[in-house]
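Final paragraph of the annual report: two paired records, presented back to back.
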Amino acid sequence: DTKCPAAALDVIDALSWLHSQASALGADASRLGVLGESAGGNLAAVAALHAAQQPQLPVRYAAVFYPMVFNAFDTRSYSLFDKRVGLNKCGMEFYWRAYCPTAQACDDWRCTPLTAGLHRSHARSHPQTLVVSCSEDVLRDDGVRYHAALRDAGVDVRHVQVPGDHGCTHRASHADLAPLFEGLRRNLLSA
């Protein structure tokens, strides 16, 4: 029910709070990571972009799974998987209109992170990022485009495509997912 950028601002506030309260929580403030799926992938992307602009907020790693990062419906994946049961083009158009009801809101990087002109200027401080797409998902090309934008800006980014439709990681085997989380573990535990 809340319109953008309210959710993004909540995530940014939560990340800042976590950083400031890390020692009280028994956590290491220098080893923060963000992870999100679908709409949460949008918020994880926003958190990573925000952290890249805030040197005092050391986010080391971002994992962005099948993210909704741009409100364009003209991609090949929208065309290929438009009529599927589950998440489809009609559903995504509804969700975007509900979340981002005006053109002005949709131009805000906190709503559509793929529109951010921040990638190149903040690439050195942007956390290493893993982008996961599902092979038969309307959002597949959002992930591919987000990965390309980060890569082209010089961010250390990796893209993995998992077989299946939206939510593919929920149905993947542990053996398929273990390598995806190795980077997260390695980056958060390294000195």
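The closing record of the year follows.
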Amino acid sequence: TLQKNIWFLLVLIWWSCCQNGKNRKHNCFRRGVVNKDFVILKTDTIIMHPLLLICFNRPEHTRRTIDALRVQHPPLVYVFQDGPRQNNESDREKCRQVRQVIEDSVDWPCELHTSFSEVNRGCRDAIIFAITEVLKLHESVIVVEDDIITSPAFYTYMCKALEHYKDRKTVFSISGHSHSPNRFQVPTDYP
């Protein structure tokens, strides 16, 4: 699951030609309330990047993830929720609860865009779809799944790292994963 955790905190930097404004099409996200008094494009030379929260049917996990993000006040937030599995009433109810958590918990001043799918795409396809949709609008995105608890410095760190590496063609992603010393021991000979 170490590999899974690293994947879930994946931050993609997209250098394709289509991202420079040519093939940007309308995406699936619905624009939420925007607090016009809170527009942050740059803070102390830190360029702010969009944050994408991907979730499914775990309301308590989603609440804890949002609680951790709230401390960081990301100014541009996209939320994608995969739809319930077919003929699964438990999924349908839990997905409804997750939507309520998002509406109630993303309460800091930010530009919020949501996409609540009615169809279940499955784990892999839902993640690919959500990231692709955000990258149609932005050159980079910070991706967090609903079972990730970020540190208070996570968002700032990721924004600084994205800026630092943005022109390096050899860097495709930046991970914000931190090994728990109780669950994983780094070998003593690791550089």
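Residues 1-29, 32-43 have pLDDT under 50 and may be disordered. This concludes the annual technical report; the extension proposal builds directly on these records.
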